[in-house]
User: Fold this.
Amino acid sequence: MMALSEMFSQLCTKAVVLLALLLIQLMLLTKKLRSDTRPITTTQYLKLIERKNPTTCFTKRLRQEDAECRVCLSEFQEGEKVRNLKCKHTFHRDCLDKWLQQYWATCPLCRNQILPDDIVAKYREPQNQGGYIFSFWDLAE
Ligand SMILES: [Zn+2]
Ligand SMILES: [Zn+2]
Assistant:
């Protein structure tokens, strides 16, 4: 009987230790998730742009100050997909998205910030690394 109860208490201690270890691991995991430093993919990046500046259809009725897209320098046509920025500048959705992917997330005309710096930095990160690898291989060849 004695041996059995001793074994039982040992088992209990083991279980407690195991549980504690599990808890610590869980805590570390949630901490990792919270300090999320994963880079932003192009899809997520474009989604964030969309959330901040929803796509609208250009209509001559809602005539804006400038009737042409300053990225491709062509006039807006009725029903074209455009984005109206907070700075009141309007661009084709495709033109602006291309611009935002190639340059910093600012208005092409007045440099007004469209997305916060940390989001842009997270988006740029993997591309910079990729660029480094490519240049490394270019050197090797
Ligand atoms: Zn355009
Ligand atoms: Zn602007």
In short: Residues 130-138 have pLDDT under 50 and may be disordered.
